[in-house]
Amino acid sequence: MTPPTTRSPGTGPQGLPADLQRPAYGTATLADVLPGVATALGVPLQRGTDLTADPLGLADTLRGARSVAVLLVDGLGADLVRAHADLAPTLAGLLSPVGDLQAPCPSTTPVSLTTLGTGLPPGSHGVLGFVTDVPGEDRTVTHTHWTDDPDPDTWQARPTVFQQLAAADVASTVVGPYAYAGSGLTRAAYRGARYTSAVSPGDLAAVLAHALGGRDRSLVYGYHAELDLTGHVRGVDSDSWRHQLAAVDLMVAQLVDALPADAALLVTADHGMLDVPADTRLDVDAEVALQEGVRVLAGEPRARYVHARPGAEADVLAAWQGVLAHRAWVVSREEAVASGVFGPVDDGLVARIGDVVALARGSWALTATRREPVPSMLAAYHGSLTATELAIPLLLARGRALDGAA
Predict the structure, then answer these.
(1) pLDDT digits over 256-274, tens only?
(2) CA distances, 96 to each of 27, 73, 324, 366 (Å)
(3) How far apart are CA 120 and CA 143, in angstroms?
(4) 109-160 pLDDT per residue, tens
(5) Could you confirm whether domain 14-275+388-405 is CATH 3.40.720.10?
(6) 278-381 carries CATH number 3.30.1360.180
(7) CA 30, CA 32: separation in Å to the nearest integer?
(8) Which of 393, 340, 336, 383 is nearest to 50 (CA)?
(9) What are the start-end ranges of the E strands in 156-231?
């Protein structure tokens, strides 16, 4: 297959502000986890000219492991784990072999899960936002509600890590909510693996542990959603969120206790999260200047893609820059691509990015109360490039035989 033509990042005309960061693709991001695990299982992957097979050194960290579990806890930002170590003693006590990793851009679940599953930055796999414009079709796709339109195999055409493991006769299993079995996002991010449904956190721990108990080399991946949901609805500075974190810690403790002697567990996340107070919310639907020339508003409150009507691109950019001012980093599509926040962007995927990109600064959120009433009511958000949103943990537990050999 001929590699796609890409637009390589460089120094854009307008650099990122000091409070936003470009993810360190190819060095220490979520994209580097599964390729490192594959290397440890004897299958070093070809990831393109700019990405090495195992930049995190996981082959050494996981040396001797016959099987590896990767548990992704949605919304388990590294800053949040550190701030609540007393509520999560199991997580706080795990090894942190490489320090914090970074989420991709935008720092949101469908982008992160596809980044994890493919081992590639968003500009290479094409799942570039929570809500994304479908170029040329005057409609959008919401990746968390996606089924089969657009076709997941063409919308995200890159081979997944799971497919590459299967080609090398290494089995992989994905364990997640039964509602996500067969979804478009599951197919885009995890195809090549066997999907097993879990109905509760305890069931997730038990099914992951059981899947690790086979005789052959294997990768087992689990996804837990409830911490993120609790944060969105109640806020991360809430008793509800803290109680849910304690429940996650118990689930991880159960999984650690059940680890086979020759297996290892990695715990990571897809993004961090921050509370957004009422005084740092700007309602896009209430600002007349932000409606002029706009064809589609996509993305989410902290990572907006604005698609302009033909010929209105410059006016839309000027209006959004003028109204948002210090509240967001607002640039053209070309500037955003050149900045490298998406990694190298395949030419065939560029149009999925808005003509204008607006990434929130500080605790600002760009809500749309008329078009997105429910998302606009949430207490906490993520999606932008602040340190808190980007920083995610990579925590390690090893089975008894591996600890003894370490």
Answers:
(1) 999 999 999 999 999 999 9
(2) 16, 16, 38, 35
(3) 18
(4) 999 999 999 999 999 999 999 999 999 998 999 999 999 999 999 999 999 9
(5) yes
(6) yes
(7) 5
(8) 340
(9) 171-177, 194-198, 218-224
